């Protein structure tokens, strides 16, 4: 039995020696193959530009940007699509644009922005325009905000009818405009200061109240040297102090509906009604 175990041990020792040698050789070959198959990393070559080339690229980029901006400024996208007017009462949009010398409502937006000061100055040459401002609601929608020097009546100067404005200035009356405007006539005024006082008072009234007056008469008395008589379109008469017209006349519509006949409304001291 012992000789067989000894023989088996010898065979086992021989296999370990020979197989171990071949296994080591295989591992060495595999390692070498890995080293051969793995490519060495390549280093990327950086592109170096000269100063001349770099400046040329910069100039090209700037030229492209400027060309794009120029194309946008002269394209339909840069025109004013809509122009609105707010604050006007007597004047129409056409009147305002004509006064401001705006000849093209759909001009380029940059042109309107650049010349808005000119348009404002031109508009203020018209006595009926007190101030004008232009602002952009969007890049293509502009708004004109106007403050009118409203027409408060018609008066005569050297036998010629003229519009009386809220600041006392006068404008020629166009043919047929008196009927259309439905403004009161001013009579009995001997001093420009008195006319200016009443004009300013009427300028604070609403369009509806101004239109409800047919005639404004300067009629001072001993007890009241600033008495004004207003002849109303509905057949009534109003007595009021010149410096209180805007405060007192606003109560007139409410008082009229409470009366059933025409008469005189006295607003000089308090509020009284006396039928004819």
Automatic annotation (TrEMBL):
Cellular component (GO) terms are: plasma membrane
Give start and end of each Cell division protein FtsQ/DivIB C-terminal domain. 157-259
Pfam annotation, one family: FtsQ_DivIB_C
Q: Which residues cross the membrane?
A: 59-80
What keywords sit in the KW lines? Cell cycle, Cell division, Cell membrane, Membrane, Transmembrane, Transmembrane helix
Keyword Transmembrane helix listed? The answer is: yes
Its recorded name reads Cell division protein FtsQ/DivIB C-terminal domain-containing protein
Q: Provide the organism lineage as a comma list.
A: Bacteria, Bacillati, Bacillota, Bacilli, Lactobacillales
């Amino acid at each position: 039995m012992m000789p067989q175990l000894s023989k088996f041990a010898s065979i086992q020792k021989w296999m370990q020696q020979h197989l171990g040698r071949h296994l080591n050789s295989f591992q060495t070959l595999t390692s070498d193959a890995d080293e051969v198959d793995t490519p060495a990393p390549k280093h990327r070559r950086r592109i170096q530009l000269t100063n001349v080339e770099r400046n040329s690229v910069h100039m090209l980029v700037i030229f492209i940007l400027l060309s794009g901006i120029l194309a946008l400024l002269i394209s339909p996208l840069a025109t004013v699509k809509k122009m609105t007017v707010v604050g006007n009462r007597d004047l129409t949009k056409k009147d305002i644009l004509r006064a401001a010398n705006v000849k093209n409502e759909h001009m380029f937006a940059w042109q309107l922005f650049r010349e808005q000061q000119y348009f404002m100055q031109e508009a203020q040459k018209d006595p009926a325009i007190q101030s004008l401002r232009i602002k952009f609601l969007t890049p293509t929608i502009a708004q004109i905000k106007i403050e009118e020097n409203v027409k408060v009546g018609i008066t005569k100067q050297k036998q010629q009818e003229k519009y009386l404005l809220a600041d006392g200035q006068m404008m020629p009356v166009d043919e047929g405009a008196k009927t259309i405007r439905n403004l009161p006539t001013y009579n009995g005024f001997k001093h420009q200061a008195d006319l200016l006082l009443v004009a300013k008072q009427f300028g604070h009234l609403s369009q509806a109240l101004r239109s409800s007056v047919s005639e404004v008469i300067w009629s001072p008395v001993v007890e009241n040297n600033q008495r004004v008589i207003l002849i109303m379109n509905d057949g009534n008469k109003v007595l009021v102090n010149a410096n209180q017209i805007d405060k007192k006349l606003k109560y007139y519509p409410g008082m009229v509906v409470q009366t059933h006949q025409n008469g005189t409304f006295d607003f000089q001291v308090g509020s009284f009604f006396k039928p004819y």
